[in-house]
Structures are given as structure tokens and as C-alpha cells.
């Protein structure tokens, strides 16, 4: 696990910006998760939302309803702030209660943890959200980054 600061996470968001992404690429993205790390794939739930529409959901054989709840809470953070949930976590690192109080948010609906990443395309900006839950929050984030970078490489080839 690598400890990251907010600037590093913003750089990752730029590094994972895709040339394009639509429904045609959803299956390709989903397949990459099982290829990149088949063991982790069975430990996680993965949700892909594109243009405010859930277009993919995976629940690994080692997951539970709790993972689904984390997916929702992580998604809500990225949906509200248009950045990785890990980025928002780093911004409020020692002030988590201030975060919830400042925005009037509920712990039931929002989680200051990593694992939700915006799906960004060149020229269009944020078009969706990718959420992973089942590993540590940093590992969830790193799994998402690794797969998005691999997808970007494939789309550019």
C-alpha cells in the first residue's frame, strides 16, 4: 500500500483519463478486472455508472451485502465531489466529522474512504463512476486505477 497525497491522486485521475468510453467498452472494462487480478476480483463488488445509469454490477463470491452498502456510500462521495473518494478522504484526513457536518451528510449515506473513481474521457470530462469495494479502501482504489490504465492502453492501441 502506498500512502498518497491529494496531488498524487489528482495526477492519477489525469493518468486514467480515457480517450473515449461508452456502453461498447463496459464489457471490456469488466473483463479486465478478472484478468488483472482474478483473486481480488472474487473479493470485490464492482459498480459502473455511465451518464447516471448503472450499466454494470459484479459481486464476487467472497462478498456480502455489506460490500453493496460500501459501494453506495463511496459512489455518493464521488458523485457529489466529481473526484476519487480517496482524494476527498485525503482532503479531510484529520477532520472527518467536520466533513460530515460541513455538508450536512450522513455516515449512512457517505463514506470517507477510497474505492470510487470518476470515469473521465478526454474532451467530455466526468461521464461516469467506477466503484470497487471488498479490499482495503486504498487497495480498492489501486485496483480501479490499474484497470483504468490498462483499459486506456487498450483503447489507444
From TrEMBL:
Leader sequence segment: none
One Pfam family recorded for the sequence: HbpS-like
Xref: InterPro entries: PduO/GlcC-like, PduO/GlcC-like_sf, YBR137W-like
PANTHER family: PTHR28255, UPF0303 PROTEIN YBR137W (PTHR28255:SF1)
The protein's name: Uncharacterized protein
Biological source species: Limosilactobacillus antri DSM 16041
Lineage of the organism: Bacteria, Bacillati, Bacillota, Bacilli, Lactobacillales
